[in-house]
Amino acid sequence: MPEVLVQYEAEIWGAIGETFFMVGISIVAAIFVGLPIGTFLYLCGKGKLLENRFVYHVLSLVVNVIRSFPFLLLVVFLIPFTRLVIGTAIGTVAATVPLSIIAIAHYARLVEQSLLDVPKGVIEAAISMGASVKRVIISFLFVEARSGLVLALTTSIVSFISYSTIMGVVGGGGIGDFAIRYGYQQFKTDLMLYMIFIMIIFVQLIQMFGTAVAGWLDKR
């Protein structure tokens, strides 16, 4: 192991733990909030089961506004809200608030797109069998779109890792913050490159795992 990694081993593991914590919370938020919102967006769309153009356009606008914010500006903009929710705007826990919000918006839009790929005939068949809206969603929509939903989540997780590197501005820590503070600012280019390599490895493993799971679920 390179000497510089041995020297900062404890700090590196701490940074990795902070990244996993921030990204983990954002994944939970994406699944338990972003998935329902994305599904509702789909259902309220034109010609869908709960068609409501007003609700669709309002909710779609909110999602688009959040996604269009430069993430650094979103973090700063949400400082008062983060302080209200967490009690502080500084630290790893506080960093999960803006990360979770962007995660919800990001995944919600990808969920809607994945559900739009479900053949219209599948929904029509479910309705003809007398399935309720809830049953259509659980037994037909999600089943048909499961592969796309997994790939969408995989893409989102990669984005969450990228977003987490910015959280050093609010003391969130993580690998990206470590690379900047200990590598770039102290002119230790080798240390910074090692951190970048670690991030690349994480992203590759996540993408490979997500693609494999999506392939296994795709029964078409």
Describe this structure in words.
By secondary structure, the chain is an all-alpha fold. Helices cover 80% and strands 0% of the residues. The chain has 10 helices and no strands. The longest helix has 35 residues, at 9-43. It is elongated.
Task: Give me some keywords for this one.
220 residues; mainly alpha
Quick overview:
The model has no long low-confidence stretch (mean pLDDT 89).
Q: List the secondary-structure elements in sequence, H or E.
A: HHHHHHHHHH
The class by helix and strand makeup works out as mainly alpha
Number of strands: 0
General form: elongated
Strand content: under 5%
Count of helices? Answer: 10
Q: Major β-sheet, in short?
A: none
Unreliable stretches (pLDDT < 50, length at least 5) are: none
Distance between the termini: 46 Å
Mean pLDDT: 89
How big is the Rg?
A: 20 Å
**Percent of residues in helical segments?**
over 70%
Write the layout of secondary structure elements.
Blueprint (H helix, E strand, L loop, with lengths): L2 H5 L1 H35 L9 H16 L2 H7 L1 H8 L5 H25 L3 H9 L4 H32 L10 H10 L4 H29 L3
Helix pairs in contact: 2-6, 2-8, 2-9, 3-6, 5-6, 6-8, 7-8, 8-10, 9-10
